[in-house]
UniProtKB/TrEMBL annotation:
GO terms for molecular function: dioxygenase activity. InterPro entries: Extradiol_RC_dioxygenase, Glyas_Bleomycin-R_OHBP_Dase, Glyas_Fos-R_dOase_dom, VOC_core. The keyword NAD does not apply. Keywords: Dioxygenase, Oxidoreductase. Residues 7-132, 154-273 form the VOC domain. This is Ring-cleaving dioxygenase.
Amino acid sequence: MAIRTSGLHHVTAIGENPQRNADFYLRTLGLRLVKTTVNFDVPSVYHLYYGDTAGKPGSLMTFFPWETVEAGRIGSGQATTTAFSVPTHSIGWWKQHLESAGVETTRVTNRDEEDVLGFRDPDGLELALVAHPQGDPRDPWDTPSVPAEHAVRGLHSVTMTVAREADTADLLVDGLGLRFHHQDGDRIRFAAGDGGPGALVDVRVDPSAPEGFVAGGTVHHVAWRTPDDATQKQWREELIDRGLEVTEIRDRQYFKSLYFREPGGVLLEIATDEPGFDIDEPLLELGRELKLPPWLEPTREDIQNSLPALDLPE
């Protein structure tokens, strides 16, 4: 594999109740809403992008929050935990902050020399906050509820649960250009780029885990970074040569995407870093207005009427 990803681009999950989803990720977790748009394939459903100040690749958690949706089942063939990076001194602050907001948390554990705090979002999606001992230099979004000194820096890692190790590990190394980092029991860590926060995936091997069902409270897919269109096209051909079923390249307005399943069943995406979220609204106004791609603009009125109103913080 000549092409190597530099790390995570975004994680996309499915939720219920758009207002509840926005309240949790904006007010409780203190992320920024960097784009309010719709699911391009089902435009009666929002697609909400949360991230850092500019919505940089590696900071993004996105949701399709339906008004009502069937509950999913977390299990094999899924990304089962999404972890965010926080400052080394902030885990205690976060535990108190989450519990004061009514969020049940796990006890703080130390794994791989990192402090880890687990919890779930209102739909039951498994999340974690991780403090890397060397810190995380990425700039956070500053809010009244979550000040910059404690704020989320971006994605830290994802955990994928699969029934067997070999084929998944082979795809991550030879297909995505990751490298084996270390193994701790049934958990195997792979790293991209410099191997710091935002460039990690943990593969949890559990042959007894139930098969996952993707619906409310589960991750839909995990996206990995590629720098530009040309690299993405070359990568697509290499993945097809490996015998994988790969989609055509799709225009997501703020990046371009292709999708495929790794052998363990997890849906993966290769997403371009370009062009970014400020192509259709100024950086200071990201997320404030409903943005639609050109091919949906003719039906804007119908789309807006089908979406529930959102009360967003200033």
